[in-house]
Amino acid sequence: MSDSGPGLPRPGRSMRERTSALLTGALGSAILMIVLVSVMWAIEIVDYVEDGRLDRYGIVAHETDGLPGILFAPFLHAGFGHLMANSVPLLILGFVAAIRGIGRFLAASLVVILVSGLGVWFTSPPDTLTIGASGLVFGYFGYVVARGLFDRRTLDIVLGVVVAVLYYSILWGALPTQPGVSWQGHLFGLIGGVLAAWLLRRRGPVTI
């Protein structure tokens, strides 16, 4: 896989060029996450007006009709409190995940959504309806931490360590400790993030 792309400094660039590329990547990732979270809020407003009717498009475990919900569930929430709880970590972790390039970030997001969604569909109790972006939150956490290990780039290692230190406590959410909370979505989101980091790892000289 090529190392070129927005926000991805190539060996041989001057420090000014590398800094400029990283700043461009940071700006792009910030805009992307603001738009993504804004879309989630817009959907939740529509869902509120419609008395929660959109929630039925989430993941329904073990039901073939519930499989399309794998793609829709991350954008649906059980009220504004649920969405608020996901918005801040999603903005922060998504921003860090996307800073190395939008295309790579979108590919990682798709892996996380599919792994998390399928894990929920297979392992949740039958007919359980699951919605929410927390699978993405756990996925981005796993992706950012594992990216530093797999890519072995200085900046990615530093970002991975910082994220691990600041957000390690969310790992408790991947255990079946809270009734009504989809630990399956959290666990498989985390697994999806690590898998995405491995699948999308970059090969080549170690750099920033």
3D architecture notes:
- The two termini are 17 Å apart.
- The chain is built from 7 helices and 2 strands; from the N terminus they run H-E-H-H-H-E-H-H-H.
- With 208 residues, it is mainly α.
- Helix 3 packs parallel to helix 5 and helix 4 (102-123) crosses helix 5 (134-151).
- It has a two-stranded antiparallel sheet with strand order 1-2.
- The radius of gyration is 17 Å and the shape is globular.
- Residues 70-202 form the Peptidase S54 rhomboid domain.
- It is a multi-pass membrane protein.
- Keywords: Hydrolase, Membrane, Protease, Transmembrane, Transmembrane helix.
In short:
With 208 residues, this protein is mainly alpha-helical. 62% of the residues lie in helices and 2% in strands.
Molecular shape:
globular
What multimeric state do the chains show? single chain
- Largest beta-sheet characterization: 2 strands, antiparallel
The percent range for strand residues is: under 5%
> How would you spell out the order of helices and strands?
HEHHHEHHH
Helix content class = 55-70%
Helix-strand makeup class: mainly alpha
Largest sheet strand order: 1-2
> Which parts are unreliable, with pLDDT below 50 for 5 consecutive residues or more?
1-11
- Number of DSSP-assigned strands: 2
Count of helical stretches: 7
Rg over alpha carbons: 17 Å
Distance between the first and last residues' Cα = 17 Å
Mean pLDDT: 87
Question: Which tags fit this structure?
Answer:
208 residues, 7 helices, mainly alpha
